[in-house]
Structures are given as C-alpha cells and as structure tokens.
C-alpha cells in the first residue's frame, strides 16, 4: 500500500472530498492571507472595542459550579490568554461560548448579539471558530480536504450543481482549493496537502486544526491548548503563528498551560480558579499577582497572607 505522506506532490486521491481531476499546486507568490482565504471577511482593526462579552456567565453540572459569575470582554484584535489550574473552568468557558454547553445564568454576546442558545453552526456563522484539546480531524481525508470542509460553509452551489459539475460548482471548487492551499501555506504545512491527515506528524495535525478553523473565516479564533505535546522549538514556531494570525486581523482566545508561551504571546490574561475570575490584566502584572501565584502554588489565602507579610 502506498503512503501519500511520502509523496507530497501526488494529486489528491480519487475518493474524498474534492473532485479527482483537480490539480493541487502551491502558488509561488502568495498574496496576503486575508485576501485569499477570507475574501468575504470584513477586517476591522479597531483594537480595544469588545468583540465578545461574557457577563456573569455561570455553568453548573448537577451540584458542581464549573463557572461562577464570570465576566470579561474579548477585545477586537487582541490575543487574550485564559489560564488557571486544572479544573478551573477554562474549557467550560470555551464550551459555553461555542454552543457546546448552555449556561445556567449570565450572557455571552458577540458584537452586541446574544450567542446563548445558538447551535454550534450558528456560532460558527457568527464568527467564532475553535480547536480542541484532543485533535479532531477527518483522519482519512487529506490535509487539504480537511480545510476545504471548513471553507464549505461559504459554498453556494446547490446539490444538483455539485452532482452535474456545473461551471459554477467547478469555479467554487477551484477557489476553495486555492484558498485551502493558501491556508495550509500560512500555517506552514502546504507540503503535506495531499497526505491523509492521520498520517501527519502531531505538530502538523495541530497546525491543520488551526487552518481548518481559520477556513470558516472567524472573527474570533479560540485555541484550546494548541501547544500540548510540543517541544520548545515547536512552541516558538506556534507563538510566531499565533502572532501572525492576530496581525492578519483575527482576535485570538488562547487556553494554554505553558506559562512561557502564554506570557510571551498574549496581550492580556484572564485567570480562573475554581470557576471564578481571580485576575484580568497584562502578562507582566499577572506574573506578579499574589492571588494568581497562590492559585498556581496551591497555597491557601492564609499562607499567602503570611507569605506577603
Ligand atoms: N461535562 C461535564 N460534566 C460534569 N462536570 C464537568 C463537565 N465538564 C467539566 N466539568 C467539571 O467542571 C470543572 C471545570 O472543568 P474544565 O474542564 O472547564 O476545567 P479546565 O480549567 O479546562 O481544566 P484543565 O486545565 O484540566 O483542562 C471541573 O471540576 C470538571 O470536572
């Protein structure tokens, strides 16, 4: 059995998401990602205005309060870190924002409109995309096909159009491939476009997840522990990628345990502990915050008071 992973120049397999006759090439001269990947996206660079607002957000599971009246804004154009010890409520917060969990109380709004109760696809349409702690890709599909799935939300051809391969469908498919390739190039894995995603090295799969999330043309990209399992060099590369995503006009919400990465890449950090927000500030201040230090050292408040004296 051949392994397409060994042959990055191979054309896509006949089975899969794309038409078999479609040729895949990496363009020599890649224009700005925002133009190629998201032609429909209106880029607003007015940093500082709230894009998403969480107000008194509360999520309970039976008797357990996983998020307890959490309030913070995600400002347009920033990289916001969401940190906290294990079980602090970070993923629950993501899940409540992205339609996985329905909050017990409080609100989540994006550009003033409520996201509470919206289905996942409606939240994608509203402009929020995410990656997962445990990578979720279509393993049998190629890297490119995984990205094209994300782009599909923007396709307008009808089912008969796709079946009869109308000119419009072919044009849209060509555009999707060009944009998919530009995205793979942007995240640094275009050389593996035709490899089945499950055959990709771990770091490539993480990058592919980011490319697929960007394909939905989000305003807010939520990354859930994107550096898990990375070595220091890969973490450095990831930091550069996250910065370039922000520089392209996206807003980024980052959950990450690696403090060096979080401190190095974020503009602001919100800290959760036992479901409550305990700090919200710039990285330099967060590093010095006694409540944050205590949360991470696992000391109780009395110890902290003693230590501060
Ligand atoms: N679906 C669920 N059902 C019941 N309890 C849950 C559920 N999801 C999360 N929890 C609980 O809610 C609390 C917060 O969990 P959450 O996963 O949000 O924390 P976290 O900060 O993301 O932790 P980690 O850093 O370990 O991923 C934990 O006590 C967890 O056990």
TrEMBL record:
InterPro entries tied to this protein: AAA+_ATPase, ABC_AA/LPS_Transport, ABC_transporter-like_ATP-bd, BCA_ABC_TP_C, P-loop_NTPase
Keyword Cytoplasm: no
A molecular function GO annotation: L-valine transmembrane transporter activity
Record SUPFAM superfamilies: P-loop containing nucleoside triphosphate hydrolases
Keywords for the protein's UniProt record, in alphabetical order: ATP-binding, Nucleotide-binding, Transport
One cellular component (GO) term of this entry: plasma membrane
Residue span, ABC transporter domain: 52-299
CDD domains referenced in this protein's UniProt entry, alphabetically: ABC_Mj1267_LivG_branched
Gene Ontology biological-process entries: D-alanine transmembrane transport; L-alanine transport; L-isoleucine import across plasma membrane; L-valine import across plasma membrane
PROSITE patterns: ABC_TRANSPORTER_2
Descriptive protein name: Amino acid/amide ABC transporter ATP-binding protein 1, HAAT family
Gene source species: Branchiibius hedensis
